[in-house]
């Protein structure tokens, strides 16, 4: 049984609470400090998605293999996977933000996992080198990769995975048509208001993300995964404009 992790005081996200000249969103020191609060209040059913990811990872993980979290941010998923993993496997986290990796190291150290998880800074906007992977996670990551580079990234992930391995992808998605897209976005902004964000915060973050985050439709994500060679792809989670995909090699 895993030892309960010490409680960490999580700073509240107030990044967009004041009127300012909005620049492109970046996973810098300011965002890294409040990221755990930001993501838990910005992604519907975030805790349940994490639980589902750990269940699926536990199912597909094989002894002696590697489990990669690409865009590992502050290490939430890595810590949860470690606590529920039924076999001995190497955990590897990769992120292109030095500030996010620093927060990740701090969180893992608090849980006594700093010598258990391998962390690496690498550019995810293109091909990535991985090997012997039984599970790869892309949790709210692919939508920040430039569309022209996504196929290259997914194909490189596929190449480093073992047969029967799975890729788990969680993404913000577009509606299949303009009517549904508007409807889903309206429902999402109402969710954010319920989570305590003001209209100013919602508007300024939307502006900051406009040129940085490029979501696909569910069908486009499915086609991307199938086109890279995955033999089976399904949706394991869906809430308006958020979706989770599982793809098997």
Give an overview in words.
With 249 residues, the protein is an alpha/beta fold. The chain has a single domain, classed as Rossmann fold. It is 41% helix and 22% strand. The chain contains eight helices and eight strands; from the N terminus they run ααβαβαββαβααβαββ. The protein has helices at residues 29-42, 46-60, 76-84, 98-110, 147-159, 178-194, 199-209, 218-227, and strands spanning 66-70, 90-95, 117-121, 133-139, 161-174, 216-217, 232-239, 242-248. Strands 1, 2, 3, 4, 5, 6, 7 and 8 form an eight-stranded mixed β-sheet that branches. Helix 2 crosses helix 3. The radius of gyration is 18 Å and the shape is globular. The two termini are 31 Å apart.
From the structure above, extract its key features.
eight-stranded mixed β-sheet, 22% strand, Rossmann fold, alpha/beta, 249 residues, disordered N terminus
In short:
With 249 residues, the chain is α/β, with parallel strands linked by helices. It has eight helices and eight strands, in the order ααβαβαββαβααβαββ.
Number of strands: 8
User: Could you tell me the radius of gyration in angstroms?
Assistant: 18 Å
Helix content: 40-55%
Structural class assignment: alpha/beta
Order of helices and strands: HHEHEHEEHEHHEHEE
Per-chain topology:
Blueprint: H1 29-42, H2 46-60, E1 66-70, H3 76-84, E2 90-95, H4 98-110, E3 117-121, E4 133-139, H5 147-159, E5 161-174, H6 178-194, H7 199-209, E6 216-217, H8 218-227, E7 232-239, E8 242-248
Parallel strand pairs: 1-2, 1-4, 2-3, 4-5, 5-6
Antiparallel strand pairs: 5-8, 7-8
Helix pairs in contact: 2-3
């Amino acid at each position: 049984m895993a030892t309960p992790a010490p409680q960490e005081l999580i700073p509240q996200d107030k990044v967009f609470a004041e009127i300012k000249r909005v620049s492109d969103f970046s996973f810098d020191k300011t965002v890294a400090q409040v990221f755990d609060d930001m993501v838990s209040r910005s992604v519907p059913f975030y805790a349940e998605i994490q639980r589902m990811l750990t269940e699926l990872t536990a199912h597909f993980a094989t002894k002696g293999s590697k489990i990669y979290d690409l865009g590992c941010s502050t290490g939430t998923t890595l810590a949860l996977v470690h606590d529920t993993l039924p076999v001995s496997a190497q955990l590897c986290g990769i992120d292109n933000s030095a500030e996010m990796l620093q927060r990740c190291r701090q969180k893992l150290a608090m849980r006594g996992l700093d010598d258990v998880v391998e962390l690496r800074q690498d550019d995810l906007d293109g091909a990535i080198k991985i090997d012997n992977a039984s599970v790869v996670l892309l949790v709210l990551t692919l939508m920040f990769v430039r569309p022209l580079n996504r196929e290259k990234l997914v194909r490189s992930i596929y190449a480093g995975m073992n047969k029967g391995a799975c890729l788990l992808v969680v993404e913000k998605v577009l509606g299949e048509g303009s009517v549904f897209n508007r409807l889903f976005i309206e429902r999402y902004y109402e969710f954010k208001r319920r989570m305590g964000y003001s209209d100013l915060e919602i508007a300024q973050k939307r502006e900051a993300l406009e040129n940085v985050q490029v979501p696909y439709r569910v069908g486009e994500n499915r086609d991307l995964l199938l086109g890279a060679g995955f033999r089976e792809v399904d949706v394991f989670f869906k809430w308006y404009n958020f979706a989770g995909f599982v793809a098997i090699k």
